[in-house]
Amino acid sequence: MVERLISGVIALVLVVSAMLWGGELGVEIIAGLAVLIGLDEWTRMTAKESYRKTFPVLLLTGVAVYVSLVWGPPAAAAPVLAGSAVAVLCYGLFGSSDTEAGARTVTLVLTGLIYVPGLLVFVPWIRNDLGLDWLFL
Predict the structure, then answer these.
(1) Of the candidates 99, 101, 94, which has an alpha carbon nearest to the alpha carbon of residue 57?
(2) Sign of CA dihedral 108, 66, 26, 123
(3) CB of 62 within 8 A of CB of 69?
(4) Cβ(62)–Cβ(39) under 8 Å?
(5) How far apart are the C-alpha atoms of 63 and 112, rounded to whole Å?
(6) Which of 3, 36, 58, 126 is the most buried (most CB within 10 A)?
(7) pTM of the entire structure?
(8) Could you give the percent of the chain with pLDDT greater than 90?
(9) What string of DSSP letters covers 46-115?
(10) Interatomic CA distance for residues 27 and 40, integer angstroms
(11) Which one-letter DSSP state was computed for residue 121?
């Protein structure tokens, strides 16, 4: 418990300092790290039995979605989201011998793909638009 408290305090100091003095790039990197951690936690919660097979698929598609939405042009969002969905569907179709397990995996991975990078991408957008005023929302 003490280790978690100490690591939480250290992480909070790093995050707040990156948000205040790191500028836009600092917030984008911190949000990107949160995406990586969130994708890992999502996969550990939803795909315990197939974590080693599922996490690389979710990681690649999640990072692609985050990078395209933060640094890519607006026109790149739809093709990247569609390509990620197709990649996940192919993984579910060919990565599992059982149809029901494949469908369950696809559902969980697509939900995680929307839930984690889809929500965290708004943090850099808000920071870039409002500056430091977004901390007081």
Answers:
(1) 94
(2) negative
(3) no
(4) yes
(5) 12
(6) 58
(7) 0.80
(8) 18
(9) H-STTHHHHHHHHHHHHHHHHHHHHHS-GGGHHHHHHHHHHHHHHHHHHS-SSHHHHHHHHHHHHHHHHH
(10) 20
(11) T
| 42 to 25, 72, 113, 126: CA distances (angstroms) | 25, 25, 10, 24
- Short-list 63, 107, 73, 75, CA closest to 89: 107
| Lowest mean pLDDT across 8-12, 75-79, 115-119 | 8-12
- pLDDT tens track for 59-81: 999 999 999 988 889 888 899 99
The residue written with tokens 């969905």 in the block is 85
What is the Cα–Cα distance from 97 to 80, expressed in whole angstroms? Answer: 27
Residue with tokens 């995996």: 105
Q: Greatest CA separation found in the chain?
A: 51
Yes or no: say if 66 and 38 are a contact pair by the CB < 8 Å rule: no
From 60, 58, 35, 52, select the one nearest 107 (Cα to Cα): 58
Residue 136 has pLDDT above 80, yes or no: no
